[in-house]
Amino acid sequence: MTHIPSTSSIPRIALASFIGTAIEFYDFYIYGMAAALVIGPVFFPGSNPAAQALSAFLTFAVAFIARPVGAMLFGHFGDRIGRKATLAASLLVMGISTTLIGLLPGYDVIGEWAPVLLCLLRFGQGIGLGGEWGGAALLATENAPAGKRGWYGMFPQLDPPVGFLCATGSFLLTAHFLSEQEFRDWGWRLPFLASSILVVIGLYVRLALAETPVFARVILKHQQAGLPLGEMLKHHAVPLVLGALAMVVCYALFYISTVFSLSYGTATLHIPRQQFLVMLCVAVLFMAAATPVSAWAGDRLGRRPVLLIAGSAAFLSSFALEPMLASSSPVMITAFLSMELFLMGATFAPMGALLPELFPSELRYTGAGTAYNLGGILGASFAPYIAQRLVNEGGLAWVGGYVSCAAAISLLAVYRMHETRDNDWA
Predict the structure, then answer these.
(1) What is the domain partition of the chain in residue ranges?
(2) Which CATH architecture has domain 10-416?
(3) 129, 98 in Cβ contact below 8 A?
(4) Contact assessment for residue 39 and residue 30, using Cβ atoms and an 8 Å cutoff
(5) Could you tell me which of 57, 85, 246, 318 has the fewest CB atoms within 10 Å of its CB?
(6) What pTM value is reported for the model?
(7) b/e per residue, 115-124, with b = 16+ CB within 10 A?
(8) Smallest Cα–Cα separation from 131: which of 153, 149, 156?
(9) How far is residue 337's CA from residue 257's CA, in Å, rounded to a whole number?
């Protein structure tokens, strides 16, 4: 096999795969928090709080529907012309969409155009993030030494907790310096506007990179697929479906524990917004702690055993949702959120290597990104909305049942997979 060494240093590769995705997840999460706290009253006034929350969560879902489209679009160019330029473009799309949300007038200024334009920009966020993760995972794993793809694939997997902490920190700052009315009038826009600065930093880091050695080999041998999506659907549909289903539990754990719980904790349990955000910051540290441990175990034991153990624990943990979340005790709620996000990190970390390993080099950007983001439609897009409806109709126990179903789906998918740890990158 022809060997083409990377001309980028390992620290630069790690930073580039980490920082861009962290920024994109920051952009994505500030919308989730805004949806739980303020999007409803600003863009959907004139209805009761429950209806506003449901409308806000529907706009939250729009981006998840867009994400597979972004994965296919950017995946096409990532598999045709390279990882580097495609990653820069996805970051730019995400940053522009997020900044414009921060500038978008509310319903009281432009009427029905406000929610329409909000949905369009939210769709743009989804397109950008849809193209981001697959490229960042390949940037890390296609530069990884033998036997360490799981460890290198951990770098983009650390981004959700980092992006979440940055997003939460930005909202905590607004809560500290602004009154509740100032926050609702204009303060919620500040985290969105800050994205423009972060995107410039991310672009600077990424544009200095060389192409990955694995894809350089594809170009050298003229192995690029004419239509990557078509080739993937024709020859790799089963890995695509199994990869998407394996992701469902990760998304369900995260968005039930963050977006839904934030809305439920502040609106129903009347826990102050600032206090609940601090509780989430504590819980997300457990997710960050689980990520390197699970990635390391995936290299040592295999992706499949780690995912089966973590998925089984997630299935059982859902039975604690009602007694712990309904307790109204900040300590009990923080413990529950910490447990769920620890399990999210454990199920999520191996995916940085597993999804790329399911597909050949010339289709890997399209395949890994599409599987990852199709899982988002199933596990996350409507998760806060469904959870809110389940609470309204049947109570918190039904939300726990929803998480159990998500875990069962992913467990079955992983059980049907073959181990990918020793797959060749050819």
Answers:
(1) 10-416
(2) Up-down Bundle (1.20)
(3) no
(4) no
(5) 85
(6) 0.82
(7) bebbbebbbb
(8) 156
(9) 6
